[in-house]
Amino acid sequence: MTCTDRVDAVVLAGDRGPEDPLAVTAQVQGKVLVPIGGKPMLTHVMHSLAALDGLDQVRLVCNPLPAYETAADVGLVYQRVDPAAGPAASLAAAFHDLSDDPNRAVLVLTGDHPLIQADWFQPLIERASAEPDVDLWVGVVDYHEVMHRFPGNRRTRYRFSDRSVCGTNLFLVTSARGRSIAETWQSFEQNRKQPWKIVARIGIGNLLRYLTGRLSLEQAFAALSRQIGVYARPVLLAWPEAAVDVDSPADLALVKTIFAERNRR
């Protein structure tokens, strides 16, 4: 397993281009170029990544257009990777383009998550350092904390017996075996808004336990790890904002409000 004193990173910013509804409204060439606080979403993401200590290679998956290069230009050295047919295939391409050492730790994040802060990476890195046998760390946040912070906001909810969580689009891959998650993820993509279909991958018995509220978060990850052959663990992050990426006009309005609040502090 890898040491996590140094990490690489992959930023998935291969959006649908000018056909994306948010891009059309903002009159930009892709969703990650939509401005928030006077800067493209992608710029905010790259700034946060640049603030991470111990960062080595960076791969940015994005369209080969000058506007993306301009948005990503924050003084951080990176290599661009062409998008493939979906985020999972793009991640596999980025892994292939990284160094020959498949056991280097790799942060994976998305270009439509402009609220992200460098501090959010640390819990994953710290857990990986403490438990080096884990292949994949998955950032999650408590659903009720998200609802308390953002009443009325719609987030995909995963209900477990001990807590309900939301995803964060933030991952840390720490082994060659962990990188195989890119292939597994391709089968999950079409069901990402239907949690029960994803949970069904852990077997009928565990699915029934999930549907009846008898499956804990850790039990679900343990069962999923056995099913996919990758030792995956959740990391509960303390920031409700980590659950808020930009997929809709409502998300965009919320993120703009949060940025305005930050600027008033």
Question: Quick recap of the structure?
Answer:
This protein has 265 residues and is α/β, with parallel strands linked by helices.
CATH topology: Spore Coat Polysaccharide Biosynthesis Protein SpsA, Chain A
Shape: globular
Helix content: 25-40%
Please describe the biggest sheet, giving its number of strands, its sense, and whether it closes into a barrel: 8 strands, mixed
Structural class, from helix and strand content? alpha/beta
Helix and strand topology:
Elements: E1 7-12, H1 21-26, E2 35-36, E3 39-40, H2 41-50, E4 55-61, H3 66-72, E5 79-81, H4 87-97, E6 106-110, H5 122-130, E7 136-142, H6 143-149, E8 158-159, E9 164-173, H7 176-179, H8 181-188, H9 195-199, H10 204-211, H11 217-228, E10 232-236, H12 249-264
Parallel strand pairs: 1-4, 1-6, 4-5, 7-10
Antiparallel strand pairs: 2-3, 6-9, 7-9, 8-9
Helix pairs in contact: 4-8
Name its key features.
265 residues, alpha/beta, Spore Coat Polysaccharide Biosynthesis Protein SpsA, Chain A, eight-stranded mixed β-sheet, two-stranded antiparallel ribbon, 12 helices, 39% helix
Would you kindly provide a written description of the structure presented here, covering whatever features stand out?
The structure is a single chain. The chain is of the alpha/beta class and 265 residues long. 39% of the residues lie in helices and 18% in strands. It contains twelve helices and ten strands. The protein has helices at residues 21-26, 41-50, 66-72, 87-97, 122-130, 143-149, 176-179, 181-188, 195-199, 204-211, 217-228, 249-264, and strands spanning 7-12, 35-36, 39-40, 55-61, 79-81, 106-110, 136-142, 158-159, 164-173, 232-236. The protein is globular, with a radius of gyration of 18 Å. The N and C termini lie far apart (42 Å). The model has no long low-confidence stretch (mean pLDDT 90).
